[in-house]
Design a protein that fits this description.
Length: about 150
């Protein structure tokens, strides 16, 4: 081998370059029909689960009207079932009373700490004093610190 042949030969590829080339080759190949169907089924399953999660809202997101409607529905169901199963009717009646109590709790916002102020259901932090208009003007025209 001559010295010119050694200089013309490219340096050996690193492991990272080999992995990048492998990824690029795989990306250029079209997906098989089986992989396409599998991905499509997985996407549909995820969409169904997302819709189901949003449809079944946790009780914390339900308003007083929802609890009132559930209260009436449970009371009617208890009245219908009373002839066939007194135990089930009693349990439905208790659940109806619990929902009625939840209406009052959700309506009045529950228990808050004494002396705390709330706005739109969020507790306000009144420990920080508000800047006056003079402070905001002074801060606007204040020079940045010299370094």
């Amino acid at each position: 081998m001559t010295e010119d042949d050694r200089q013309a030969a490219p340096p050996p590829r690193s492991r990272m370059e080999d992995e990048v080339l492998e990824i690029l080759v795989r990306a250029d190949q079209p997906a098989s029909f089986r992989d396409h169907v599998r991905r499509k089924a997985d996407q549909q399953r995820r969409d169904r689960l997302t819709r189901l999660r949003h449809a079944l809202a946790p009780p914390a997101q339900l308003g007083p009207g929802s609890f009132l409607a559930l209260c009436f529905a449970l009371a009617i169901a208890g009245a219908v079932v009373r002839a066939w199963s007194p135990l089930t009717a009693t349990l439905l009646a208790l659940a109806s009373v619990v929902c009625l109590v939840m209406v009052a709790v959700r309506r009045h916002g529950g228990v808050t700490a004494p002396g705390s102020k709330t706005w739109r259901g969020q507790e306000l932090d009144v420990s920080r004093r508000a800047d006056t208009w003079a402070d905001s003007v002074r801060d606007r025209f204040r020079r940045p610190p010299k370094l």
